[in-house]
């Protein structure tokens, strides 16, 4: 069959197009019926604490995702620069997730613990003071704006409805103790969300100002947890390849 025949016959072109789309769809869909889960089996991944979640909300609000992806792709050059490639399991509690390929700035999937709290604060206030070639704008108001956490319990309830295992009952709390440990289970208890948020902010003193809980506290708390939940040294090389 000549290609010209396909291009000049609308009916034939539609039929062949539908056939190609159908085959492509089957290739993508059929394997899903033969696997138990699309999430890797990995220890350590947990929901965000109330403070970290508010930081993530601010990260999204300020549009940081438009310049920074959170997805290390499984290519040698990316893993040499950023670390182990991203796992689906690491984003299972993200709504919405921050994957993508737009990188005006570096990928942030594994930025947690790479720099000190002080570095993160200064970088957010005046990026060029630490990275002269950076084109990132400053966000000095984060250090001056008190964090609004009056609705943190409602935010957590909304996330719970889409599958994040925050607890509202004693039974759910005990399930989280067994799954994540008592320390984290306390942080995931919606009934004490505000107290837990303030407690973590004061203990971490992320913005260097222990007198108040600011948006900077939340933002830095979020950045410092990115990529830190999975200890990849516990897994053999190639362990996660079977899930790809």
UniProtKB/TrEMBL annotation:
Residues annotated as domain Cytochrome c: 50-184
Listed Gene3D superfamilies: 6.10.250.2250, Cytochrome c-like domain
Recorded GO MF terms: electron transfer activity; heme binding; metal ion binding
Residues that span the membrane, as ranges: 12-34
Protein name: Cytochrome c oxidase, cbb3-type, subunit CcoO
Keyword presence, Membrane: yes
Keywords of this entry: Heme, Iron, Membrane, Metal-binding, Transmembrane, Transmembrane helix
């Amino acid at each position: 069959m000549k290609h010209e025949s396909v291009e000049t016959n609308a009916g034939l072109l539609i039929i062949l197009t539908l056939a190609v789309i159908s085959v492509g769809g089957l290739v993508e869909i059929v394997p899903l019926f033969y696997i138990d889960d699309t999430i890797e089996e990995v220890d350590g991944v947990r929901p965000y604490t109330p403070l970290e979640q508010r930081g993530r909300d601010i990260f999204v609000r300020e549009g940081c995702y438009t310049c920074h992806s959170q997805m290390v792709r499984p290519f040698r050059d990316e893993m040499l620069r950023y670390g182990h490639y991203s796992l689906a399991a690491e984003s299972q509690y993200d709504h919405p997730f921050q994957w993508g390929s737009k990188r005006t700035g570096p990928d942030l999937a594994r930025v947690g613990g790479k720099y000190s709290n002080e570095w993160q604060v200064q970088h957010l206030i005046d990026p060029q003071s630490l990275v002269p070639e950076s084109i990132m704008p400053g966000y000095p108001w984060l250090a001056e704006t008190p964090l609004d956490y009056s609705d943190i319990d409602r935010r957590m309830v909304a996330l719970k409805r889409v599958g994040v295992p925050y607890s509202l009952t004693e039974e759910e709390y005990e399930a989280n103790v067994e799954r994540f440990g008592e320390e984290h289970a306390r942080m995931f208890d919606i009934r004490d969300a505000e107290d837990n948020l303030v407690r973590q902010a004061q203990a971490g003193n992320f913005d260097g100002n222990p007198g108040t809980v600011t948006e900077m506290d939340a933002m830095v708390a979020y950045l410092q947890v990115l990529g830190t939940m999975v200890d990849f040294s516990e897994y053999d090389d190639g362990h996660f390849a079977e899930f790809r």
